[in-house]
Amino acid sequence: MALLTPQGVKKVFQFQKPEGREHLRRLLNWEEFDELRDSRRSILLDTLYESIIFAVGKGFPWVEVAQVVKFTEELLKETKGCSITEAVTILGNKLRDHRGQLNTSHLLAQCDYFHNTFIRHYKLYQYVLGQDQDVNLTVTHLEVCVPPQPLPLVAGKDQAVWKHRQQVVGLSAAEVQTRAYALQLKEALQLQQQHLLQEMLPELPGGQRQALKREELENLINEAIHIHIECLKELLQYEIQITFDILDLKLQKKTLNLSAPTPSPLPITGQSGQDEALKLYKANKGRKAKAKKK
């Protein structure tokens, strides 16, 4: 308490509450402690800090503010384990002893403060600060994902326009995926054709190709042609189906573009705003005219 000078409590009051509590802890010469695990000391520090706020709010001089903090700490120690009647007696005696240090109005304000806080909630103070508590505390660290930074309002779109755009993007992605699938299918059929042709060629035990007679060669060529035609037929069927799928996607995109919603008009602010509104009006008018012609 030796460091709790008028200048010290003034500095505590000038800080924000977290920094003020920490500065008060150093002035009281307390060691650092865990606010969560040592809740008793945290509550006691809060009580002393609130006594400073009370005294300054009532206009106490800084010397008397330091005395109020000392008064609060002594009162909490002296009433530990006492009944409420004994606590009221101790409070009265201490106030009587401070009559020479405080003027009458400040003494009455201090009396009201401790009656309305400490005495009114005396049992709670005794339960928290007067006896040991079994603390079973589990601390879980959770990662909080903050939402992304929103775009400026001027970059926003109407909901109908945004949904329409998402549908167009989805159809474009489906078209790209269909074309990629067509290329993969073509490569797979070519590999299958090569594999079938290789299996047709007879192999000798030594690994060398055997000589073929004219009739065997003709049969081999006919079979190779048959394999090639079957593979081309299968490839052609797939390409026709994929072409229909792509055309269907293009038709859906065209239908969407013709029925695209009209965005809300831009706010007209000055000459630039009027120019933008005029361009938007002409664009919508031209698009509707093209749709009627088709």
From TrEMBL:
<protein>
    <submittedName>
        <fullName>Uncharacterized protein C8orf74 homolog</fullName>
    </submittedName>
</protein>
<dbReference type="InterPro" id="IPR032727">
    <property type="entry name" value="CLAMP"/>
</dbReference>
<dbReference type="Pfam" id="PF14769">
    <property type="entry name" value="CLAMP"/>
</dbReference>
